[in-house]
Specification:
415 residues; alpha/beta; Aspartate Aminotransferase, domain 1; Aspartate Aminotransferase, domain 2; seven-stranded mixed β-sheet; binds 4'-deoxy-4'-aminopyridoxal-5'-phosphate
């Protein structure tokens, strides 16, 4: 969104939004909670908590099997969320939405099911140097099993994938490109339209890890044109335990099951089992039914707040945070991509990130310190770890001020 477009958007009423998240009014160590770790997992609005609690209190039953009313109702509610999710990410068909536990499981599903039947010895899987471990390890396991090669596109000093570098790493043996839409350690928004075009021009399917994208922007998988898109509900203001794999129907349809068991079969005998159609083929066993219902409530909540208002507020907040951090000479921000979400990873000169996070915690400020499950990113920027503050649409300028005051305190203590 351009600055001119942002100016036309009705501003977000952040205090009203905050009132929807009960946890944001609690204290920690006697100080008001300043929650700056939404990239790890975000907080939940009351409507999500209520939807799940109401389901357990008055609507709970297992789905897809029961002939009685309660089970039929639970099934309708669960399947309604499939449609809500389809609409949320702009998929063409609800059968393209598979409910899984989280982004990690979704990537493992694709690496296992699609990967095992399409990747052979000497083939290549291409990822980038900014991936979360969830988008490294499943491919590495596949490559080890098959004798295939995991190739890695490097990133530049700003933490961006350069398209020329990507092009150079594609070969006639590339079978899959799997990259994040948004980096969890750097905040970089990747140029996914261009990356998808480049892959498809060579007939290579592409998976996008959208775990850090969907909490910040409106995503449309059909417009992007990717083959697979994955995300976790718990980063999207929904509960933990429910995540999503989107796969183009044509691809999903041709894929063998990942996990075997109940609910994913057509018929079972000891001689031969036939499998259900998609998406049931990939949803073996009893799912997190209440989690999926909570995810549906989270999506409806976000849409009621409005993406334009969310995006405009987050840009304003990020600009403010970047300026305030830039005024502290000891801070070096890691991840300065031209297009990024408000994920602020930084090094505070002379102080280990764990010490930074512990002092901030005493001030009620929750940030993450570590390698953020992206150890290769830390290596790339030659730091053992970073402190990471992430902003969501429920954060305010005064949250940023509390972070800055906390960092000044850290510097005093470690002088
Ligand atoms: N990909 C990215 C970019 C992430 O940030 C995360 C979570 N930090 C994951 C994948 C994995 O998400 P989950 O732990 O919910 O499976």
């Amino acid at each position: 969104m351009s600055t001119a477009e942002r100016a036309l958007v009705a501003p977000l009423d952040v205090e009203k939004v905050r009132a929807d998240f009960p946890i944001l009014s609690r204290s920690v160590h006697g100080k008001p909670l300043v929650f700056l770790d939404s990239a790890a997992s975000s907080q939940k609005p009351q409507v999500v908590i209520d939807a799940m609690s109401e389901f357990y209190s008055s609507g709970y039953a297992n789905i897809h099997r029961g002939l009685y009313e309660l089970s039929a109702e639970a099934t309708r509610r669960y399947e309604a969320v499939r449609e809500i999710t389809r609409n949320f990410i702009g998929a063409g068909d609800a059968r393209e939405i598979v409910f899984v536990r989280n982004a990690t499981e979704a990537i493992n599903l694709v690496a296992h099911s699609w990967g095992r039947s399409h990747v052979s010895e000497g083939d290549e899987v291409l990822i980038s140097a900014m991936e979360h471990h969830a988008n490294i390890v499943p491919w590495q396991m596949l490559c080890e099993e098959k004798g295939a090669v995991l190739r890695v596109v490097p990133i530049n000093d700003r933490g961006e994938i350069e398209l020329e570098a990507l092009e150079q790493h594609i070969s006639s043996r590339t079978r899959m490109i799997s990259v994040c839409h948004v980096s969890n350690a750097l905040g970089t928004i990747n140029p996914v339209d261009e990356i998808v075009s480049m892959a498809h021009a060579r007939g290579i399917p592409i998976l996008l890890d959208g775990a850090q994208a969907v909490p910040h922007m409106k995503v449309n998988v059909e417009e992007i044109g990717c083959d697979f898109y994955v995300f976790s509900g718990h980063k999207l203001f929904g509960p933990s335990g429910a995540g999503v794999l989107y796969g183009r129907l044509e691809l999903l349809d041709a894929m063998p099951p990942f996990l075997g068991g109940g609910d994913m079969i057509e018929s079972v005998s000891f001689e031969k089992t036939t499998y259900a159609e998609v998406p049931q083929r990939f949803e073996a066993g009893t799912p997190d039914i209440a989690g999926v219902i909570g995810l549906g409530a989270a999506i409806e909540y976000l849409e009621s707040v409005g993406w334009d208002a969310i995006e405009a507020w987050e840009v304003e907040l990020m600009d403010y945070a970047v300026d305030r951090l830039a005024a502290i000479p000891e801070v070096r921000v890691i991840g300065t991509a031209r297009r990024k979400v408000p994920v602020l990873s930084f090094d505070l000169e002379g102080v280990h990130p764990h010490d930074v996070a512990m002092v901030l915690d005493q001030e009620g400020v929750a940030v993450r310190a570590g390698h953020h499950c992206a150890q290769p990113v830390m290596e790339r920027f030659e730091v053992p770890a970073t402190t990471r503050a992430t902003l969501a649409f429920y954060n305010t300028r005064s949250d940023v001020d509390a972070l800055v005051r906390g960092l000044e305190k850290v510097l005093e203590l470690f002088d």
